[in-house]
Amino acid sequence: MTNPAPASFWTQANALLRKNLTFQKRNVKTNVQLVLFPVFLCLLLFALQRFIDTQIGGSAFKCGCVCANNTTREHSHCPDSQKVCGVQYSDSLQAAFCAIPNPIEWPPLLQLPAPSSRAVRTPSLPLSDLPDASCRRTDSCPLTLLFTAQNHSFAKNVAANMFGSALSVSDFGSDFLASLAMNVLGSESPPWGNNFIEIAFSSGDPIYYLQKKCTDTEKSGLSFPSLPAADNEIKCAQALNLWRNSSSEINGELYKGYQTGNTDGQVNEIVSAFDFLNSNRNRYNVSIWYNSTYKQGTGFSSNVLLRIPRSINLLSNSYLQFLLGPGTKMLFEFVKEMPKPETSFRLEISSLLGTMFFTWVILQLFPVVLTSLVYEKQQKLRIMMKMHGLGDGPYWMISYGYFLAISIIYMLCFVIFGSLLGLKIFTINDYSIQFVFYFIYINLQIALAFLVASIFSNVKTATVTAYIGVFGTGLLAGFLFQFFVQNTSFPRGWIIVMELYPGFALYRGLYELAQFSFEGSSSETGGMKWQNLSESTNGMKEVLIIMFVEWIMMLFAAFYVDQVLSSGSRKGPLFFLKGFQKRPPFQKLDAQMPVSKVFSQMEKPDVIQEKEKVEQLLLEPTINHAIVCDDLKKVYPGRDGNPDKYAVRGLFLSVPQGECFGMLGPNGAGKTSFINMMIGLTKPTSGMAFVQGLDIRTQMDGIYTTMGVCPQHDLLWESLTGREHLFFYGRLKNLKGSVLTQEVEESLESLNLFHGGVADKQVGKYSGGMKRRLSVAISLIGDPRVVYMDEPSSGLDPASRKNLWNVVKHAKQNRAIILTTHSMEEAEALCDRLGIFVNGNLQCVGNAKELKARYGGTYVFTMTTSSDHEKDVENMVQKLTPNANKIYHLSGTQKFELPKGDVRITDVFQAVDAAKRNFTVSAWGLVDTTLEDVFIKVAREAQAFDTLS
Fold first, then answer.
1. Angular region, 394: left φ>0, alpha ψ -120 to 50, beta rest
2. What is the pTM of this model?
3. Are residue 315 and residue 427 in the same domain, yes or no?
4. Which terms are listed as keywords in the entry (predicted)?
5. For the segment 595-645, what is each residue's pLDDT rounded down to a tens digit?
6. Rounded to 5 degrees, what angle do the CA atoms 722, 723, 724 make?
7. Which domain holds residue 922?
């Protein structure tokens, strides 16, 4: 048949798309598992949400009623007149969500350090006015306050009025809080975020009253009848006002005693410190130090401010008494929150926990895409497709679209199923925003996978690295990046820099969606809308811009790296500028061997003749010669102190159309390196080679459209059938319709892959011989003009090998074939010409008869006798020719080489007949030189020469 025209862009794209769809159909189980992963996570979050909703529906979160005269919480038999409804427990949950029309009036308190943390004398603070550290053993250390001023006497007088000398509490009546305000009370319990409930009166911790000197150390069971759940032990604590000469001294003392900041490893906490500055009778100007580290849980760092007003009142009251006398009082009776209505409580788990989980769900696509790309690279399937005519454009378009379609289906299942389950992060936020966000990110993720795939060549390494990246990204984003986002003091510029990492950009977008869904779950107008993107606190807009720009940049970067680094198309870094350059098809370059030691030897006449033929073809090019190699060399640089490896040492070769050229040689001779250069797997170190007039250095894309390859190792998809392989590669060769079907069927029939359902069996179930026959069929489909077969019959049984030879004989009639083999029988049966390759050099060229005549001009004579007559056999051979050479001797069997020019066959027969009359001859034989003998002889001579060199 005539060779079809090269396949168009859309024909190649159609072939790859059909192959991918078939491959995907075979992996439907894996695809279902992939889609079910986000569904499983959504179900898990849904179940967790239902569980939490059930728990929140319990009494601890409800505002019920109790009977005023009943200590139990049961009120089924309680009269309505005695029911008290509202907050039932002394905890922050009910206080935060129950209706409180009349908040409780709580006595103002000072924040006090625990007895074990109060300031004492230490080696780092050897101040004589501080108490001895022994007081900590009895929990009797006083509470230290520091003060300073420009006017010492003024500050001392004011500070003296701060604390009383005895506890003063009136009868429990209407003026109870007013009488309580005459005392200075404090607590070591950290405050809550509000004053609906004062934790100091419900925690059971003691309440301290501060005095100049304690006489009564404690009063147990002192209750406050106007305060609910207030039945605390009240203790006296001595307040110690200490003078310091300056604010810098106070600063230093506070710093040394701050938690574990001192060198003694002890905590020396000061209650508070005051600097009266330039205050006097006519001017009141005070600075106050307070400890802001007291907090209950996270997110309440400013709660200690609830207990700061008592310090201000205490100081102001002392100043009034200094001016107007001790009878003057400015009472601070109570603190009280504003009333509030009941607020519903719903903990949206998908918004709180979903950010990290959803980040992991979406990032799971990255290892899927990456491993698929690296698998094609590791198995050399990408270069196999490229060698059979698949261009980069169709490959990128179909592969990218293929992964994009899978990602879109994955995300649609994720969002739709999550919405059906009622997860607020999906249902509240605008779906169009979600679509744009997810669409841009999955495109960015695919582009990133193409870029990263150029780094890896092993699937296992890529998989492990990708999953470490997935989980590491989620953890870092959840526990580090989110902290920076929530910290308003952290520079926004650095947030943007971190969002340049795609994983953090994904997390930030999901975080914003989660925040809007969490805040909007309790309101009808909640959720993120397009107008919210303009808000300064919303990072979604910057995330969308960053991801879109990175998507475009990474896509171009991935394509560029692929062109420069991928096998079969390794181009220079400035390959995109070569379109402006013109080069004649047969321009010989003065490429030289790298500076190194090069072996030299006298070239054989047939090799010299081949070289002259190549040089003539370069001067007068002709299309009759499909392959022309001009001084082709390949050198692998030495590593770890080893010398350079010369795989091919200047090869001159021409192969015309219709010829099968056989390359023979021992392992490591350079045969596969030569073929790898010709098919584009590696670039030559120097020299040139032309296939159908196209240069292998710069025009491999054109060569691939007319080339077929049967590689040394089978490069096949395990889940595709033999017929599907041939249909795919046939389409790449621009075969269509009935012509494609006919050629596929003929290929299967000719290579015995048609019967018994073999053609429709997945290749993963093929034997080694069946895979080899399929590889040969792939190399010949589409009538390529040049075919390379690297040991095509390895692993075949004799019948299959014979059948394969018939196929190759028929195929070589209208194309050039280069075939490597270790079988001399195969070489003689198939090859029109042979070349023996040793140590990177072409030692001889010619057909089998010429080589045997040139390098095997001897007969091999063999005779077996008893050991007593071995000498008689030697004498007989010497009489035939004194130039005979004994090459074998074992237990009476001797083998000799007889020069053809010295003996005649009739002389040998006559000598043997004469010898039989004198002694017993068990066996004898005379054979001509075989191709195997020629191969061994040439290889030994070449290796011996190189050793001597």
1. alpha
2. 0.69
3. no
4. ATP-binding, Membrane, Nucleotide-binding, Transmembrane, Transmembrane helix
5. 333 334 456 788 888 898 998 888 876 667 889 999 999 998 887 778 888
6. 90
7. 857-928
